Amino acid sequence: MTLNRQLRVAVIGAGPAGIYASDILSKTDLDVSIDLFDRLPSPFGLVRYGVAPDHPRIKQIINALHKIMDRGDIRLLGNVDYGVDLKLENLREFYDAVIFSTGAIKDADLNIPGIELDGSYGAADFVSWYDGHPDVPTTWPLEAESIAVVGAGNVALDVARILAKHPKDLLVTEIPDNVYQGLLASPVKDVHVFARRGPAQAKFSPLELRELGHVPDVDVIVYPEDYDFDEGSIEAINSSNQTKQVVKTLTDWTLNDPSTFTASRRLHLHFLHAPAAVVDNDGDGKVDGFRTERTKLNGDGTVSGTGEFFDWPVQAVYRAVGYFGSELPEVPYDENRGVITNSEGRVLDLNGEHVDGLYCTGWIKRGPVGLIGSTKSDASETIRNLVEDAQDLEAFATATRPEPEAIVEYLKERGVDVIQWDGWHLLDAHERALGEAQGRERIKVVSREEQTNISLGRA
């Protein structure tokens, strides 16, 4: 069978997963029209709002995504919130298939006593703040002299580095002014990063770890007593060049002479310390300590507790133990894993049957693991299955109002300020102009209202 129209596909989420899925779908043999939605006025998801501002190399991913969207065969419809501005039944009316690529933006839970105390924060929220996310407050409580960061991945390093770094050294980045002013008032002197396992099990990337050693006026301190290896650790070092580089960098730091630590701020890396409790000693509901339990390696790279506890006098705790996906209205959800219930990107109902026309990709499909390479292969799998399902065009083409302008009219009638790709170009040019005036590549606009007005030519 042939259609007298293009297949209509909506992609919900304009981060890397959504853009890569759209790109791959556009290059298949299907005659397809693709609309890429995002709830924010600006695209690019966690690449824009989840990568530290002092990591411009990682942000170069945006350049690749920009080129895909500049082709013009994928339509951006930004500032449209699924579940609020558009429900699933609406999408069914305008599209034959829907791909969810909403990612994972919440902090995973850390179930220890005291985690709810004032001064205990999720790293994802802090990252959103320092990246200028339009949906978080413009201020952040930075009042602690000593801070604990829980986690052994790159997000933990990002959080620790931003907390410890002198704000003037961030002025060459796209950091918004409200973030700079907030960090400038911070009295921090010590940032402690706690990892439950040993050095060979840390998930830091070698480059990100090495960068810590080059932060001006910040000493990096690693403790020999936290340093241990078992057979599993040796195997990990021998089988992974990345692990080998991480361990070498950490080993070099253990050999530093403490008398050379003269910086005004210190970043401490602790291994074999499991989080046990966030402490409120004086009962005022605020963090004034952090308790860890010494762990020991079991031989296979796992650890178990030893019953030996340590108390650290800190006034803030940040948990960086992973991201977690959010449930979407009317979409089957696995609350244990924080993902849409699916099989290879096909959304499944409670009976394990494919919900016709619904797909997912990225972290909301597989969980918050893997980098850009994983995201591309993940999208390829989902699109392959969508294309296979679309071979039965008569059953697949279910939209009752498939005309491309129908969805735009629908949103306009409901007062939604839809931002298309040319609107992003206006915001992009505005941010670059703000940066150029200060010798920087860009300065982000933070306010959602201001982003929207600039993108729609109202500013």
Brief summary of the model shown:
The chain has 459 residues and is an alpha/beta fold.
Topology of this protein?
Layout: E1 7-12, H1 16-26, E2 32-38, H2 45-49, H3 56-59, H4 61-70, E3 74-78, H5 88-94, E4 97-100, E5 106-107, E6 120-122, H6 123-130, E7 146-150, H7 154-164, H8 177-184, E8 190-194, H9 206-212, E9 218-222, H10 231-239, H11 241-254, E10 265-270, E11 273-279, E12 289-297, E13 303-312, E14 316-319, E15 323-324, E16 333-334, E17 339-340, E18 342-343, E19 346-348, E20 354-360, H12 363-366, H13 372-389, H14 393-396, H15 404-413, H16 421-436, H17 448-455
Parallel strand pairs: 1-2, 1-4, 2-3, 4-20, 6-14, 7-8, 7-14, 8-10, 9-10
Antiparallel strand pairs: 5-15, 11-12, 12-13, 16-17, 18-19, 19-20
Please provide a written account of the structure:
With 459 residues, the protein is an alpha/beta fold. The protein folds into two domains: 7-105 and 325-419, Rossmann fold, CATH 3.40.50; 107-323, FAD/NAD(P)-binding domain. Helices cover 34% and strands 21% of the residues. It has helices at residues 16-26, 45-49, 56-59, 61-70, 88-94, 123-130, 154-164, 177-184, 206-212, 231-239, 241-254, 363-366, 372-389, 393-396, 404-413, 421-436, 448-455; strands at residues 7-12, 32-38, 74-78, 97-100, 106-107, 120-122, 146-150, 190-194, 218-222, 265-270, 273-279, 289-297, 303-312, 316-319, 323-324, 333-334, 339-340, 342-343, 346-348, 354-360. The strands form five sheets. The chain has a seven-stranded mixed β-sheet with strand order 3-2-1-4-20-19-18, with helices on both faces. It has a six-stranded parallel β-sheet with strand order 6-14-7-8-10-9. Strand 16 (333-334) and strand 17 (339-340) form a beta hairpin. Helix 16 (421-436) crosses helix 17 (448-455). The protein is globular and about 75 Å long. The model has no long low-confidence stretch (mean pLDDT 95).
